[in-house]
Amino acid sequence: MTPRSAHPKEDNGKQPAADYVGRFAPTPSGPLHIGSLLTAVASWLDARAARGTWLVRIDDLDAPRVDPDAESAILAALESHGLRWDGRVHRQSDHQERHDVAISQLGARCFACGCTRRELRGLDRYPGTCRDRGLPPDGNALRVRAESAAPGFTDRVQGHVDMSHRTVGDFIVRRRDGFASYPLAVVVDDLAIGVNNVVRGADLLDNTPEQLLLAWWLGMEAPTYAHLPVVVEGSGVKLSKHNRATAIDNRWAPHNLAAVLSLLGFDPPLDRVETMLAWAVDEWDIARVPQGTALAGFFAIDR
What we know:
Layout: E1 21-24, H1 34-49, E2 53-58, H2 70-80, E3 90-91, H3 96-106, E4 110-113, H4 117-120, E5 141-144, E6 148-149, E7 153-155, E8 159-161, E9 167-168, E10 171-174, H5 182-192, E11 197-201, H6 208-217, E12 224-228, E13 230-231, H7 253-263, H8 273-283, E14 294-295
Parallel strand pairs: 1-2, 2-3, 11-12, 13-14
Antiparallel strand pairs: 4-5, 5-10, 6-9, 7-8
Helix pairs in contact: 1-7, 1-8, 3-5, 5-6, 7-8
């Protein structure tokens, strides 16, 4: 396939597909915290309210970050909170051959890059250092030529996302270690399992233009996006496994659900997990989720 050279048309904010397929795709670097539970609950509710399919994919390509005990802990937490998925658990590592095929389809758009993170530190975008150096692919990262304006799109939570102020620099599609980069892998992985609706954190909002461009160049239809505000600590720092956010306690599942539903803009009754989720499916309207990229004032769960 010859990569497309034209710019993708801007997404018009289409509603969820009739045959809705959503997913939750955690990195197995540690157990779920309240922020990741919020994303799981919102994506599950969005799928169930649309009478759609909800899949779980473990994004395990970043081997140094993988905790061998994390996957089982994540799945146990989902089950404890009533978030049962459809079919088998998928894994990003299952799709490495598909990643390689997609990179080969990008063809001459790709070039080898030997720049280190230290050399590029402080730069807003890649300056094109290795574009014409003709470096060998082995032992180097692969970048895709992408000197163009970032495509805007309409997000189901954030509304119109204007990226005209930003230029997409040449970005990595294959890391130096031979594995696909996150933007390339997630586009291919979502297509492989039929995902057409993505509900995820707003910390990935800036990564979306690269994914839209890749989907366009590869002849794929991009999914509909809904980027949720992320939960932050009082200091404004996003809750994350990297920052050692406290793992949720499965013994307090109803309280955990009440907390994330409140953060999402709902006033849930405190009841059994199954009852609360049934209530939430009936009440679900993603338009009620607060806009913005952060949910400030994270609070302790009162038990």
